[in-house]
Amino acid sequence: MTLLSQSRRTRLHLSALALALSAAGSAHAAAPHTATAKVSVHLPTAPLLVQINQVALERTGPKRAIVEYAGQGSGGTYTVLRDGTPLAQGTLQPLPAFSEWGKGKQYYSVDFSSADQAGRYQVDVRIGSRQASSAPVVVADNALFATTAKALLDYFHRSRHTDPADRSVRIFQTNRKVDVWGGWQDAGGDKGKYLSHLGYANHFNPQQASMAAWVLAYGADVRKARFSAQGLQAQVEDEAFWGADYLHRILDAQGYFYTTVFDQWGTPGAERMVTGYEGAAGTYTPLYRSAFRAGGGMAIAALARASLLARNSGRHGEFDGAQYLADAQRAYDHLRRFNAQYGADGKENIIDDYTALMALVELHHATGEQRYLDDARARATSLMARQTRDGGFISDGGQRPYYHAAEAGLPVISLVAYAAIEPDTQRQQRARAAVTSALAHELAITGSVANPYGYARQRFQLTTGGKASGPVLEGFFIPHRNETDYWWQGESARLASLSAAMTAGAGKPLSTAQAAYAQDQLDWTLGRNPYGMSMLYGFGAKNPPIVLESAGEMFVGGISNGITGAVGSDRGAGIAFAPGPNSEQWRWVEQWIPHTTWMLYAVMMAGEG
According to the model, what pLDDT value does residue 35 have? Predict the structure, then answer.
């Protein structure tokens, strides 16, 4: 494990404390922990714990509490309370023995999905002489979206980057300066701006600012009814156009997007510039032209969708809808020719396929042109050719399984989007069959071992000499020994992406297993995890601690990286959250824009029908 540079540990200003405390005072939830000293967060040691989603559950959806018991004896009873009044009672249902996250515990499930009246719920449990109660949770129609959407949008607004110095930033290894003003800071402690990073590792590129811009534009345009019902339509439109305007500015005259605006995480004396970077030291590289997988594909998708939003709403940002569409078309034409050479290894992989497919779907929506459908068919065919017989995916042309800490659901979402524009029945059916197979794989691998919380499991390989090799393994968390050399933090974005993929891919109604899987991933982030901690800041009974020295500012509506495998485990086995004290606590605590992006997308897709 490579440690981050001293700059990342010391880049923050004390003024962040005032911002964090202000955010913590929001009326959204109980006041979270606000200690600013470095802290250690260990698994709770109480003999009896009842873990539950602490934020919101759908009235007609899955509702489950998990009980952890470390005492003597077994069995026990539960009571479900609504607004303080007992509603249902029963015997605890034991779950299969599970010891990967600590020995000596018994697990039980309390399923109260049949409770379909709105209210404030808690679960009370008794085993022998022990008694414990869950945190409260709101149950209602459209509960999660109505409860969180405003704060999620506010997070983007609070994260806007408006430093005028970005009006003139040099491009690495040139004397040319460009206007890259706007956009969003990437994370609580990082004022850099990224379409993507980790490009040097080839298979780990996350979609960052461009994904945020697309989700906002898609939500404002396609999910308008949901935002309007909460009085949020103008706000989501404003944020979508803010993102589209930034994408216009970072589109070079030659037709490529700038991948990052970076200053080595605020290292004193480091020049802020348009550049690529590599590794934990943030070494500048010339890999600053965005391939499809390095944010270019989703930037095209976002601009095309923003053009539709402008057309349908009669509004726009600094630039108009015609400009957004012209940008998207020019950028696609450029990457269609040069994409492979913008990747670190000169080869396309699965991330190029699904991000290019998203770009093509949105270009087809915006223009109706046959050429975009033709290219979408080719990309969908390439993506489906990477699927294994059991529904998983291969990342490259070899045997490396596809796994991703931020967007594991995006291959499925891209195929769902493609199927929606495909007029040919056979092609459409093939895409839908691939989606069905992929979702079945997710259910199978997640349920193949004892898994009390239903945490989405994944296949992976460990790296040798910087390349994935050896046997294909399975586990809960991203392996620490991977191609990036240092990047294995929490997976809140990944979980929300998989929840959204299950919801979008399964259609309505979801099966019982599909609905449970989709809910399990959100529940983990929202408090139903072994730490009893809601990663969504400002919501729930307990939030991650503020660790300014490592993780920076905390905004209400921001989501922390989350839980990982144990420190020191190459495979990511075991479990950890913010051990220390040390400079690595950002791995668990820091808020990152893809987490809130994917949560917003997931909640706008959930709870309907």
Answer: 40
Contact, 572 vs 23, CB < 8 A? no
SS3 per-residue string spanning 457-486: CEEEEEEECCEEEEEEEEECCCCCCCCCCC
Cβ–Cβ contacts within 10 Å for residue 60, how many? 15
Cα separation, 9 vs 530, whole angstroms: 28
Task: Return the closest-CA partner of residue 184 out of 232, 236, 234, 245.
Answer: 245
User: Nearest-5° angle of CA 149, CA 240, CA 408?
Assistant: 70
**Which residues 6+ apart lie within 8 Å of 101 measured at CB?**
43, 530, 574, 575
Q: Is residue 12 over pLDDT 80?
A: no
Residues 548, 576, 263: CA angle, nearest 5 degrees: 40
Domain 50-140 fold is Immunoglobulin-like (2.60.40)
Best CA proximity match to 517, nearest among 574, 444, 460, 576:
444
C-alpha neighbours within 13 Å on the C-beta side of residue 261: 28
From CA 287, how far away is CA 291, in angstroms rounded? 9
Sign of CA dihedral 433, 437, 443, 447: positive
Q: What are the residue boundaries of the structural domains of the chain, listed by start? A: 50-140
Determine the Cα–Cα distance for residues 272 and 185; give it in Å rounded to an integer.
13
pLDDT tens digits along 111-145? 999 999 999 999 999 999 999 999 999 999 999 99
| Per-residue confidence band for 39, with pLDDT thresholds at 50, 70 and 90 | low
Question: Could you give the CA distance from residue 212 to residue 592 in angstroms, rounded to a whole number?
Answer: 11
Q: Are 232 and 153 in contact (CB under 8 A)?
A: yes
Q: Could you report the per-residue pLDDT of 392-446, keeping only the tens digit for each?
A: 999 999 999 999 999 999 999 999 999 999 999 999 999 999 999 999 999 999 9
Which own/partner pairs from 88-92 qualify as long-range (CB within 8 Å, at least 24 positions apart)? Answer: 88/112, 88/114, 88/115, 92/67, 92/125, 92/127
User: Do 475 and 572 touch, CB atoms closer than 8 A?
Assistant: yes
Q: What is the DSSP string of 319-379?
A: S-HHHHHHHHHHHHHHHHHHHHHHSTTS---HHHHHHHHHHHHHHHHHH--HHHHHHHHHH
pTM above threshold 0.85: yes
Residue written as token pair 């802020």: 272
